[in-house]
Amino acid sequence: xxxxxxxxxxxxxxxxxxxxxxxxxxxxxxxxxxxxxxxxxxxxxxxxxxxxxxxxxxxxxxxxxxxxxxxxxxxxxxxxxxxxxxxxxxxxxxxxxxxxxxxxxxxxxxxxxxxxxxxxxxxxxxxxxxxxxxxxxxxxxxxxxxxxxxxxxxxxxxxxxxxxxxxxxxxxxxxxxxxxxxxxxxxxxxxxxxxxxxxxxxxxxxxxxx
Length: 210
Hints:
Blueprint: H1 11-48, E1 51-58, E2 65-67, E3 72-74, E4 77-84, H2 90-123, H3 129-163, E5 170-172, H4 176-209
Antiparallel strand pairs: 1-4, 1-5, 2-3
């Protein structure tokens, strides 16, 4: 048995515990990292080429008809479009950038917030005060980030349709389904935080009986 291992724990078990802990953090970090790199690269590339991508809800065929060599097609529903920044007002571009940057920052903060939770789970002691605090921070940042993103994207999308003179034919790219989905995520995190608090209380009561 090597020095520093827990009492009664075999070396390979200690190595497996450490490997799994590091692995969880690594995979979560890589997933968030890849998304952030992709989002930042896409944003910078678009700005360099003086364009920006955003979702719009097409509600009319008047501005959504596509001409193909063999037939015609019509855009409908939620669709990503790319607009030249020179066609947009400065205020419109600022709102869209706020929405995109807020989404990126929310993912970064979320990744940092869940690290203590993963470490405690890997140690076999998930119901800690540190994990509960981390869940509270995660919930707060996601809620605030979503509010800022939705507000900026709705206003920005409406101003894009105004700048392009298609306000009567399209709607904002933030749908109620997406809003309720993210609301469910926030509610799920709060439910998990309360479960952790109950688990911590039960653990303390059991420790007092032993």
